[in-house]
Design a protein that fits this description.
Radius of gyration: 25 Å
Mean pLDDT: 82
Distance between the termini: 26 Å
Largest sheet: 6 strands, mixed
Low-confidence stretches: 1-111
């Protein structure tokens, strides 16, 4: 987000600039999630003396001096570009530097932010939910407080991110961006206080007859594509704020209700023909095998399916571009477990490794999938049985207590709630392996699709997408430039060597700057984030078509149109990503 928080006067701003003291925010690439995991590259605040500057440091960006505040503190959803915390520290330091007297605190009640104030009116959850867009006013809650932030949203570019919390609580967002939990931030928040939240602390009753009633609570920022079973995208606004996605907003793909598993008693069975099956609990798995971590992107095979439906309707969830996320996964190597169970180094005699989850077991139809044994045994493919995600135990939506993590392969093969591994000469018998997640040409319909003979999808093709700006975004011609950013990724361990961006429908192309983790050649499991700032065409008034396309280390490039990739299931749409931006000339 861009702009200063309400309360910073222009004179104060100018005095601070003239003082020659600047502050820097760097390293916004990896954030803190609600579980408290910190990366080695967290956002941080520094103060420097000297002229305005811009450079790259640790994969993040450094801003100072007269640089217009932008994209700071990892894009926190409920702060301005400088963030509540940065703004408060900045204001306080500037007051000291310029010897200004503002007359005390900003109006926090004596009981603290979100404490009930008897003189204010009460509002219910239903009242707050009615105010979830600019036309109705934007309200949010914090503890027992209700706040009207409509004026704040309208006066600050980047309000689209703030609107993620409209009509709901602030806490889930501040749990993602814990840097904002300071007394200075709460002081600022209280300026927008309008009432008390009468439903604070109330627990919603669950329907005992609903098989989904025991599903875990989810972050309100997730973009839900289906409620039961629960499926949701990471919001585009937050998707590339970090090379590693916070657990709470990692996209969710469920086929069935989320099982409620006792991690202490859960067991994993490993079956190899002709051998005695091995049964291990989670503690034994950890004790017996060396721990291994891998930073890996998972992408649903149906990501960007919505674009295919523009040509002809396809069957499946209406994913846009947010069915993709990246995490650090920790567990034990599948290879080690298989060798210990009696499989030979070369896997001779077998062709596949099958996996079964706990979900669906009650109806005798557990979710299942399989991968080729060559991938399972390849020490360079980094396939693991994971029990941690971003440094903490797996969240329930993401497979607690165990899941398969198979880098470079479509999400459907990364079986969650893992309970059984079967070494076999054939693929999993599950419908999701034999009767789904397969590709067909654009002339094939449901009446003549032969799922039995079609190859199962494993490695994902090269992919990229634009996350900012969004479709239909308006930009003032006076701005002069257009900032564009997004993600790129390729399956099978292939890295991204180039991302090309065009703002004239593909007539001319420009190179984007790439931001990625350092991973070995052939083992580049994590996505690449990219960005570019381009000059707007002089005198242009009207629409621009913005396009991106990526090239991987095998020099595979995205195809031009989704029309020729169309298939009945809408999978593997990796065509050039296109959005349209409107350039508005001053009146």
């Amino acid at each position: 987000m861009v702009g200063l928080l309400r309360g910073v006067s222009r004179s104060l701003w100018n005095k601070c600039l003239n003082s020659g003291r600047f502050f820097v925010i760097s390293g916004p690439r990896v954030l803190t999630n609600s579980t408290g995991w910190y990366s080695s590259r967290p956002a941080s605040v520094h103060y420097d003396d000297g002229p305005p500057q811009f450079d790259e440091r640790g994969g993040g960006r450094r801003y100072s001096g007269a640089v217009k505040w932008s994209v700071l503190i990892g894009g926190a959803a409920l702060a301005s570009a400088v963030g509540f915390y940065a703004k408060a520290r900045y204001e306080r330091q500037c007051r000291e530097q310029a010897s200004l007297d503002t007359g005390g605190r900003l109006g926090s009640p004596s009981g603290g932010a979100g404490t009930r104030i008897g003189s204010l009116p009460n509002y219910s959850d239903a009242d707050v939910k009615k105010h979830n867009k600019l036309s109705s006013g934007v309200w949010v809650t914090f503890n027992e407080g209700v706040y009207d932030i409509t004026e704040f949203v309208q006066s600050h570019p980047g309000g689209d991110k703030i609107l993620l919390a409209a009509g709901g609580p602030l806490e889930p967002f501040w749990n993602l961006y814990a840097i904002h939990k300071t007394s200075e931030v709460f002081d600022i928040l209280e300026e927008h206080r309008i009432g008390n939240y009468s439903d604070a602390g109330k627990v919603k009753q669950k329907d005992a007859n609903d098989p989904y009633s025991s599903d875990p609570a989810r972050h309100p920022a997730l973009k839900v594509t289906k409620d039961k079973p629960f499926n949701a995208e990471t919001p585009i606004d937050l998707l590339t704020e970090s090379l590693v996605t916070p657990n709470d907003i990692f996209f969710v793909r469920n086929h069935l209700p989320v099982p409620d598993i006792d991690g202490g008693s859960h067991r994993l069975e490993v079956a190899v023909p002709g051998r005695t099956p091995v049964s291990l609990d989670v503690a034994q798995l950890k004790e017996r095998y060396a721990e291994h971590s891998v930073v890996m992107t998972i992408q649903c095979a149906g990501n960007r399916r919505q674009e295919m439906s523009r040509f002809r309707k396809v069957k499946g969830l209406d994913w846009t571009g947010g069915a993709i996320s990246t995490a650090e996964w920790t567990g034990v190597r599948l290879r080690d477990v298989l060798l210990d169970a009696g499989v030979s180094e070369d896997g001779s005699g077998y062709a596949h490794v099958q996996f079964e989850g706990v979900d669906g077991r009650a109806s005798n139809d557990p979710y299942g999938a399989s991968i080729p044994i060559e991938i399972a045994l390849n020490p360079y493919r980094d396939v693991i049985i994971a029990y941690k995600m971003n440094g903490v135990e797996l969240p329930r939506d993401h497979g607690y207590p165990l899941r398969l993590v198979a880098p470079g392969i479509i999400g459907a093969r990364n079986v969650k709630w893992l309970s059984k591994i079967i070494v076999s000469d054939e693929e999993s018998l599950s419908h999701h392996q034999r009767g789904d997640y397969k590709g067909f040409n654009s002339s094939t319909g449901w009446e003549n699709a032969d799922f039995g003979s079609a190859a199962s999808i494993q490695d994902y093709p090269v992919q990229s997408a634009i996350v900012e700006p969004v479709e239909g975004h308006a930009v003032a011609a006076d701005d002069g430039t257009l900032s564009i950013r997004g993600y790129a990724w390729s399956g099978g361990g292939k890295g991204i060597t180039r991302v090309d961006v065009s703002i004239d429908g593909g007539k001319t192309w420009h190179y984007a700057a790439l931001d990625k983790l350092k991973q070995k050649y052939g083992q580049e499991w994590a996505w690449t984030l990219w960005s570019v700032e381009l000059d707007l065409p002089e005198g242009h008034d009207g629409e621009l078509e913005v396009i991106c396309k990526a090239v991987d280390t095998s020099h595979n490039v995205q195809p031009e149109s989704a029309e020729h990739l169309w298939n009945i299931r809408g999978v593997l749409n990796n065509a050039w990503h296109r959005i349209h931006v409107k350039v508005e000339q001053p009146e």
